[in-house]
């Protein structure tokens, strides 16, 4: 089972200089998203990552936005 509370040591975030402009672009296209959602989209876009969503998040608006943007996502159980 995957747990976001036990991240590997090699996990890092990209430079904000790359993600902040992408966050602004996504905010223009998807005005209903909060800052955390915008950051998830921007990072996934920057590094080609799959966004992990909880069951409750997968029932919200984010999956449709990720699909619209061509970004991968999957539902995980949070332990």
What is the topology?
Blueprint: H1 16-29, H2 35-47, E1 51-53, H3 55-58, H4 62-68, E2 73-75
Parallel strand pairs: 1-2
Which key features would you list for this structure?
79 residues, 48% helix, two-stranded parallel sheet, 2 strands, 8% strand, mainly alpha
Question: Could you walk me through the main structural features you see in this protein, from its secondary elements to its overall organization?
Answer:
By secondary structure, the chain is mostly helical. 48% of the residues lie in helices and 8% in strands.
Overall number of strands = 2
The largest pleated sheet is described as:
2 strands, parallel
Relative strand content:
5-15%
**Assembly classification:** single chain
What is the radius of gyration? 13 Å
Overall geometry? globular
> End-to-end span in angstroms?
7 Å
Helix content percent band: 40-55%
What pattern of helices and strands is seen along the backbone? HHEHHE
Enumerate the strands of the largest sheet in spatial order, edge to edge or round the barrel.
Answer: 1-2
| Individual helix count | 4
Give me the secondary-structure category: mainly alpha
Q: Runs with pLDDT <50, length 5+?
A: none
The average pLDDT is: 89
